[in-house]
């Protein structure tokens, strides 16, 4: 369904010396979630803007892809609960669901997987592109660059007005992202690139390209590939978060999809967003020992100290993060499989989780461990270097970005995104020549 008239209106008056007339704004209903006050005509009618830095009360678009109820801890992809998808589905199927709106039939699933598999290789010349980076470059920096450069290599899928171009670009992005991520890793350690293998599924192939080397056989551990698949599902989309909104805003000007996804990667990198999983590990290392936890918790509570407990809190979830619940289970499965019992960082993580969950400050502010708290620990156990954590998030989130970008382009009411501002700078003043200042 599309947004419908809720049958309600919001009425207000401006209490200054203006006309004193009452203004009426229509209200719209979606299929779930709060109604919205439609302010699209507000400026024309009242000469006022709304003011909402951080968009805490603003819906920026209509979407049918992902639904979150932060109070109840609900996350749905196209109506399906995240825990059911994590337990019973697999990542390619979830990609299909996010892109096309329905779960695929067996034939559709096989065709889709085949289509993705046969787009995993990179243009050979792109491989040389990696060599232009310093070996110690952060892999997110490499990824922003290489993904942005895809538009220079795949001109034949950059006409955004052509649905076929859009779909080929979408397949290419989903398919090539693990190859780019694995190459960024291999480059950083001076190891040879591993080309994708078409006999492996998406998660297996990713692990293979990350961990195999040309000198010996590599067998993918099924517990680890299942864990990777789940991690990919859990991170696949999250409605209008910072990076997705970045992709939409970049795309609203008509920019090509590769450039838009590169912008999304840049936004994801920040520690308040996808960079939190890397920040969690750095924080656990800084804490160093369970005996220091109380000191760090006090620091996090201190208003005059900018320090925050990384991996805790969420803009939308004020109950628990449903992804964190699944991730917690996966975390234990992986640690058991790898026989990790005496991992000091894990001891710190477990003790920190316990302490924060019992602390009044965290309880009152509803600051629960989020998905990044556990994903960092799993990645660490799997031997993935910390600097690569956010890269894995980017691999998973690409399908969400692409689905949201397609939805925006296909929306007939789509306009260039152009927020306004509350100006507080100098008003008009005359220029004074440099000698007279
Ligand atoms: N540690 C200590 N205090 C916190 C934390 C934290 N991690 N998170 C929020 N608070 C406090 C904050 O100081 C504020 O207190 P007060 O009301 O007294 O000023 C209150 O809780 C509300 O915080 P906020 O900054 O207004 O909330 P927000 O919705 O703007 O921020 C957040 C959400 C995720 C950026 C924030 O909780 C945070 O910085 N968390 C740590 C970083 C992190 O783990 N990010 C990953 C998010 S999940 C993955 C993703 O979606 O990318």
Fold and architecture overview:
The structure is a single chain. With 437 residues, the protein is mainly alpha-helical. It is 50% helix and 7% strand. It has 18 helices and six strands. The strands form two sheets. The chain has a three-stranded antiparallel β-sheet. Strand 4 and strand 5 form a beta hairpin. Helix 11 crosses helix 18. It is globular, with a radius of gyration of 24 Å. The termini are far apart. The mean pLDDT is 93.
Compact description:
Helices cover 50% and strands 7% of the residues. By secondary structure, the protein is mainly α. Strand 2 and strand 3 (36-37) form a beta hairpin.
Fill in the keyword field for this structure.
437 residues; mainly alpha; three-stranded antiparallel β-sheet; 6 strands; binds carboxymethyl coenzyme *A
């Amino acid at each position: 369904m599309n947004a419908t008239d809720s049958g309600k209106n919001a009425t207000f008056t401006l209490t200054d010396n203006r006309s004193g007339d009452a203004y009426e704004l229509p209200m719209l209903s979606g299929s779930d979630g709060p109604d919205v006050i439609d302010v699209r005509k507000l400026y024309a009618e009242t000469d006022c803007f709304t003011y909402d830095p951080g968009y805490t009360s603003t819906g920026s678009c209509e979407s049918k892809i992902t639904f979150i109820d932060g109070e109840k801890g609900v996350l749905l992809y196209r109506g399906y609960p995240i825990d059911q998808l994590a337990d019973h589905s697999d990542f390619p199927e979830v990609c299909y669901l996010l892109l096309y709106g329905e779960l695929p039939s067996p034939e559709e699933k096989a065709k889709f997987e085949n289509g993705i598999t046969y787009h995993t290789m990179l243009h050979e010349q792109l491989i040389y592109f990696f060599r232009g980076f310093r070996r110690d470059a952060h892999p997110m920096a490499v990824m922003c660059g290489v993904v942005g450069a895809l538009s220079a290599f795949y001109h034949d899928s950059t006409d955004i007005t052509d649905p076929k171009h859009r779909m080929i670009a979408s397949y290419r992005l989903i398919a090539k992202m693990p190859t780019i991520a694995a190459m960024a890793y291999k480059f950083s350690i001076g190891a040879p690139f591993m080309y994708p293998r078409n006999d492996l599924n998406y998660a297996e192939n990713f692990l293979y390209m990350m961990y195999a080397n040309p000198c010996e056989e590599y067998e993918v551990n099924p517990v680890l590939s299942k864990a990777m698949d789940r991690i990919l599902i859990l991170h696949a989309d999250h409605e209008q978060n910072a990076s997705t909104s970045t992709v939409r805003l970049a795309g609203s000007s008509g920019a090509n999809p590769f450039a838009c996804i590169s912008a999304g990667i840049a936004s994801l990198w920040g520690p308040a967003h996808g960079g939190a999983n890397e920040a969690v590990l750095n924080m656990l290392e800084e804490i160093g020992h369970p005996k220091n936890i109380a000191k760090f918790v006090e620091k996090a509570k201190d208003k005059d100290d900018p320090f925050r407990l990384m991996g805790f809190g969420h803009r939308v979830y004020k109950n628990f993060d449903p992804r964190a619940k699944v991730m917690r289970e996966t975390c234990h499965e992986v640690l058991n499989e790898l026989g990790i019992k005496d991992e000091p960082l894990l001891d710190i993580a477990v003790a920190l989780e316990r302490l924060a969950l019992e602390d009044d400050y965290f309880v009152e502010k509803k600051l629960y461990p989020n998905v990044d708290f556990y994903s960092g620990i799993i990645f660490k156990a799997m031997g993935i270097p910390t600097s690569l954590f956010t890269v894995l998030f980017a691999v998973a989130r690409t399908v969400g970005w692409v689905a949201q970008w397609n939805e925006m382009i296909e929306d007939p009411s789509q306009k260039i995104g152009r927020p306004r501002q509350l100006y507080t700078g100098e008003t008009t003043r005359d220029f004074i020549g440099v000698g007279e200042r």
